[in-house]
Specification:
13 strands; 7-stranded mixed sheet; about 325 residues; elongated
Amino acid sequence: VISTPVAIVSALTASARAGVLVKGGAYLEAAGRLKALALDKTGTLTCGRAEVQTLVPLDGHTEAELLARAAALEAHSEHPLARAIRRKARAAGVRAPVAETFRALKGRGAEAVIGGRAFWIGSHRLMHEKGQETEAIHARALELEDAGHTVVAVGNDTHVCGLISVADSLRDGVGDVIRAVKRAGVRRVIMLTGDNEGTARAIAAEAGVDEFRCELLPEDKVEAVGRLVRQHKHVAMVGDGINDAPAMAAATFGIAMGAMGTDAALETADVALMSDDLSRLPWLIGHSRRTLRVIKQNIGFALALKLVFILLT
């Protein structure tokens, strides 16, 4: 009777020593049955250290004005793209004005009032929704996206002020991790992202995932994970941001990036990679299966011993 909980506690302790915090034995066992793995892109597959690559001021605005408004609108965000814009503004010596009545647009961007005028910042999708995207702006945005950059648009109630392209790089060894996960028996590895198709396709090809889904809002990620659960039953979702938390909750178990992850992601997740080391994923699957084998061996040994005693009696 005691052999099973002792094995589980021992495995949880070994996981913690290896930098993987598992919140319970049920989730440790679930890792050994994993059939599909969904991963967020920004901050999970990529380093989360995005850098501004190109500034495209439009409609008479200067680069300094574009950066100042973008930095003001992103002042309250902890998204890697927001941090990249603020770093660029500081490096350029641009002072961000105060943004008032800030409002986050779930999965798309944000709005605020700067100097008495309403401004917005967000994805290509948000720019399209605002109805201010001309053919020339659309072509320029596509050109940046085809280069593997994420496009951030800044605008007001009358026009688009400019475009900012941001690029992030894959974590070292991601391709090896994906291959190791597949060798461990995971059938499908899917990348989920709110980014545009061009950027998503470039990152997915470099990472070696089976498929990708792009331009997803948080509720779209939940739907995608739910579909995977219905198809494969045992599914894990790996993420780091507040937008990933609902999708983690929809999976069989959620895995958060412990160092870069937001509080919401860490609270929702059932497993945390404390050093943000994706190589711990195949290790966790193998560790879980070894634990299950030990438990089965313990049970087999106990039953065999009881049978011997019964025969002797």
